[in-house]
Amino acid sequence: MSNVSNINKLSEISDQYDAFLIDAWGVLHDGGKVFPHAYDCLKQLKAQGKIVVILSNAARRTTDFDKELLATGIDQSVFDFSLSSGELLWQNFKSGRYEGLGSRCYYLGPKRSQGILEGLDLSLVNTLEQADFIINAGAEGNTSDASSYQKLLQNAVDRNLPMVCANPDLIAIRKGVRGISAGAIAKLYQQLGGKVEYIGKPHKQIYQDCLAKLAGIPDHKVLMIGDGLQTDILGANDQWIDALFITSGIYNQQFAEASRNDKLAELFFSEGALPDYMIEALVY
User: Fold this and answer.
1) Quick one: angle between helices 85-94 and 204-212, nearest 10?
2) Is the dihedral of CA 278, 274, 271, 69 positive or negative?
3) What is the 8-class DSSP label of residue 29?
4) Contact residues for 187 (Cβ-Cβ < 8 A; gap 6+)
């Protein structure tokens, strides 16, 4: 494609940027172990004095998210800070941004993400009948689609319960297995007529809060790196910052098919996102 540059190594363009916002799942690790080439890339960027931020739609607070990174093999020596959608959700509730929702929360998601509720003035309820709203942090386990949630979601729609989605991702690859994320459940809820507030990429707050922490680095010196067209790349497009698309991530099958049929432009158009660069994997 004439307007998307294909590169083999990040070092081909790294001198153009001072800060790198990097997605985690599918870019740095597979949900279990770090990709050695990606870890080396982080080390190389830090050695050059670059600012490295891990920007994720994980529905966990910063402390828990950083522990997860460490468990995969990514220690804090190779990045400056992380920012997750779960942390933003917690901060939004703590600041009173969602005060109008009420205090009785029905939690939908895995146990590992329940830390996003700790320390908040919320009451966790067991049934939709008791709830004022829903926090959606994703599926329990590695469910292949959201259909098993339809009855629950229709009940919530009938009760006019607003939903706060802590992870806009539609899918995730966890240790090589593809499954849905919270965004897929939220999408079905909207299709059924429910109202959803999204926290995380591609929505502007996570980018604006991140950019505000970059000590005056101009936007044209910031590069977003991710494998999600509808999240990482679209969000970067909306904030007018450059984007590098990792083609071996969650779009690997669609990308391979589009490449074989010379339909990359159609792929990007259908997803509503256009990267400045593309690379197979995060290699320095």
Assistant:
1) 90
2) positive
3) B
4) 146, 170
Token pair for residue 130? Answer: 């008791």
The answer to whether residues 58 and 65 touch, using CB atoms and an 8 Å cutoff, is yes
pLDDT per position in the chain (284 positions), as tens? 458 999 999 999 999 999 999 999 999 999 889 999 999 999 999 999 999 999 999 999 999 999 999 999 999 999 999 999 999 999 999 999 998 999 999 999 999 999 999 999 999 999 999 999 999 999 887 777 888 899 999 999 999 999 999 999 998 777 667 778 999 999 999 999 999 999 999 999 999 999 999 988 999 999 999 999 999 999 999 999 999 999 999 999 999 999 888 899 999 999 999 999 999 999 99
d(CA 139, CA 228): 19
CA distance 258 to 254: 6
d(CA 124, CA 10): 45
Q: Domains in the chain, ordered, with CATH?
A: 5-87+202-279 (3.40.50.1000), 100-198 (3.40.50.1000)
Q: How far apart are CA 103 and CA 120, in angstroms?
A: 9
